[in-house]
Amino acid sequence: MSTYSDASGAIMPLQKARRATGFGGVVPALAFVAIFFVVPVVVLLLRSVLEPVPGLGNYAQLIGSATYFKIFVNTFIVSGFVTVISLLIGFPVAWALAIMPGWVTSVIFAILLLSMWTNLLARTYAWMVLLQRTGLINKMLMAMGLIDQPLALVNNLTGVTIGMTYIMLPFIILPLCGVIKKIDPSILQAAALCGANRWQCLTRVLLPLAMPGMAAGALMVFVMSLGYFVTPSLLGGTANMMLAELIAQFVQSLVNWGMGGAAALVLLVVTLSLYAVQLRFFGSQNPGGR
Q1: 5 DSSP β-pair partners
Q2: 169: nearest Cα among 104, 205, 123
Q3: Rounded mean pLDDT of 240-254?
Q4: DSSP string across 172-208
Q5: Bridge partners for 12 per DSSP
Q6: What is the pLDDT of residue 84?
Q7: ABC transmembrane type-1 domain location, by residue (predicted)?
Q8: What is the model's pTM?
Q9: H or E element at residue 109
Q10: Is pLDDT at 88 greater than 90 in this prediction?
């Protein structure tokens, strides 16, 4: 039997020493999760069923109110559109980054990282300037003769979708690029030698191999979009409120922690459910076909 000598010189079986050392290393992580995740969630759960009166009245009000239902619909529609558009734009960009020369990829990666590091509030205000009726985008469209009157691109869900798509693109491009780089090019060459055209190589070889990365990126973008606050509040306005704005209004303006906790827990349950689905269908797949 293999043995292990600890700091005091005592001899103990190696397997027992590994068990002791492994559990001790996990304790700080468990404490961190308990303090910063489990305890706040439990507090929210308790407040959502105890305030202002004990019971499930907060959840019944959330589900039964047409106003709150519209906010839920707005949140999921915008998050879905942002995710789909980000995938449609992000996949070609990630593919291009994966096959470009190294120095070009480095420059574009630097631009992506710079956009992520730029203050979120500054980026959102920049989009407000670009999308307003007298902004650059409307002026360019009118100068090209594509429109006769300025388009309403702010204070609606269109502006929210545009602004959030811009912000979310790096979060789908970066993981996708990593997955595509791991795909063996000889697989695509073999498909072409077997008679597959470019479309078949894309849809029947590249996309299935990149699907785990697409699923992970799409889940990240969708979940982040569900809980986004700054961009929807500035570009959407009060008439197009989303769930994060509703939670903030409950807590800050109405001081209704019960309703705020109920809405937050609904969002958390949806997020964990989506994560479970992603793990169920894509968690065991090996990206890159290796």
Answers
A1: 11
A2: 123
A3: 83
A4: HHHHHHHHHHTS-HHHHHHHHHTT--HHHHIIIIIHH
A5: 4
A6: 93
A7: 72-278
A8: 0.79
A9: helix 102-117
A10: yes
Helix axes 120-131, 136-143, angle to 10 degrees: 30
- In the chain, the amino acid numbered 168 is M
> Token pair of 6, please?
């600890």
**Which amino acid, residue 25?**
G
**Residues β-bridged to residue 4:** 12
The whole-number pLDDT of residue 83 equals 92
Judge if the upstream peptide bond of residue 52 is cis by omega within 30 degrees of 0.
Answer: yes
**Which residue do the tokens 């349950």 mark?**
269
Give the integer Cα–Cα distance in Å for 138 and 31.
Answer: 52
Q: What is the pLDDT of residues 127-154, one digit of tens each?
A: 888 888 888 888 898 888 888 888 888 8
Contacts of 269 (CB under 8 A, 6+ apart): none
Which token pair is 104? Answer: 């070009």
Residue 282, Cβ density class (10 Å: 0-12 exposed, 13-18 middle, ≥19 buried): middle
Task: Spell out the long-range contacts of 258-262 with Cβ–Cβ below 8 A and sequence spacing 24 or more.
Answer: 258/47, 258/48, 258/49, 258/50, 258/51, 258/52, 258/58, 259/48, 259/58, 259/61, 259/62, 261/43, 261/44, 261/45, 261/47, 261/48, 261/51, 261/58, 262/48, 262/58, 262/59, 262/61, 262/62
Q: Are 167 and 123 in contact (CB under 8 A)?
A: yes
Average pLDDT over residues 24-50: 83
The token pair at 254 is 């109405």
Residue 13 pairs in a beta bridge with 3
Radius of gyration, alpha carbons of the chain: 25
**How far is Cα 185 from Cα 189, in angstroms, rounded to an integer?**
6
Burial class (CB in 10 A: 0-12, 13-18, 19+), 135: middle
pLDDT in the model for residue 17: 45
